[in-house]
Amino acid sequence: MLNEWKEFQDYTGAVNYTARNKQDTTYLGRFTFDTILDFEGLNRVLTILARGFLFHNEDGSPAEAPRERIDYAKRGLCAWCSVPDSKKTTPREAWQFGSDFGELYSEFPGLVEENGSGWFHRHVHRVAAFVRENPERRVSSSAQKKCAAIEKGFDHAWQDKVIQMQIPLFAPTTKGQWGLRFDSFLAQALELGPLRKEEPELPPTLVEQFRTLTPKGVPLDIVTTLVSYYLANKPEDSDWVVLPVANFDAYFGTTSFGRKYLKQIPETFLERSETGFGLCRYRLGNVLAIKQGWSPDYSNKINCAKKPNSIV
Known about the structure:
The chain is mainly α. 45% of the residues lie in helices and 4% in strands. It has a 3-stranded antiparallel β-sheet.
């Protein structure tokens, strides 16, 4: 969540489909079943992808003239999201949007196959295949039920979502009001700029203080990551930062982050709003400022790059 270039690579590279036991969800990669089945957290995923396509070359080096790469970035998003058309699908009219972008294979061979199966589509089905092939010993019964739901209805639901994401912002239809849209991801990407590669580090003295403040049972790395993420993404005009809870669940490899640990952190430490659609907003509590003598300007307290806005 702090090294955004690494996050981009996780969304486009190889996934290790394995698990040591039923609690290990390594096979999900940088996703959760909530993202796969309910698409929670996809806003951040697709915005990270858009920023990578706009501002970076394949090796991560800065790309020239990002605004001239908008069409390229949109094709990259289409390739990643591609869903193969069914052989029984009625041919589309020229004005209709599609979801099969197999024609982009030559430009994005790592993101879409010639048959139209995009990176996300392939990943989801590989997750389902892993669970199906490893019952009882290495996957939970809950995961097996969710993968049964994937095999039953994911393709159709994702195909509809990909078509919706292409609807223009001011389309005179209700479909144009959906929150996920390629144009929105590209706009957010242009505003946020290049992906951050360095991981902010908290001073050791602060880490020790957080150790004493962290509630029993809450992993310390969760608290320090939340503080680092806050300081790296705090806007100039607000104390609040958007927290992509669904993406943090995937980052930590457990939904216990959003459903258990986050609720155990007291408001004196971390004040937050209720979570909805995989998001909430939060700010650091007054106890930190009181105990450490912090001022509202945290820039001298941490080695991190400021961002103009929170990342959703």
